[in-house]
Amino acid sequence: MKHKVTPFLMFNDQLEAAMEFYTTTFPDSEIRNVARTAKDGPITSAEFVVGGQVFMGYNGGSYFAFSEGFSLYVDCENQAEVDEYWDKLVKAGATPTACGWIKDPFGLSWQIVPRRFRELIADKNPKKVQAVMEAMMTMMKLDVAELEKAYDAA
């Protein structure tokens, strides 16, 4: 299926390593097309899929940098899935920031979020939502048990 809008990521010179990490970390991922400036030269641009989402990538040089203004949101079924992706990112050299956010070694920010968090903050009781949000603000990696504890106590 051809997408009308595709995120385009500008890497310094790490496109190939980033694609390899992303496509081996997330299911439903693949490297589709690559372009090289020479037969055995480095990849300059590529089309790849991560978790079913199509991306275009380019090695644009040090002029380009990612910021937290753009992040990739990972919808995790449960705490085990949160732990799995978080651990894979940390093992690869990612830096945890706050509130379920983590910056990968290529500079791209990810949000690793358990589905239960979204369910809890969708509650009609604003005091419960506030308690969950306040608990989330104290966390690096999101912890479902602690979020539910805050919800139940509110």
UniProtKB/TrEMBL annotation:
Span of domain PhnB-like: 4-113
Gene Ontology molecular function terms on file: methyltransferase activity
A Pfam family the protein falls into: 3-dmu-9_3-mt
Keyword GTP-binding attributed: no
One example of a Gene Ontology biological process annotation: methylation
The UniProt record lists the keyword Transmembrane: no
Domain of life: Bacteria
Keyword terms: Methyltransferase, Transferase, Ubiquinone
Protein name: 3-demethylubiquinone-9 3-methyltransferase
Organism for this UniProt entry: Calidithermus roseus
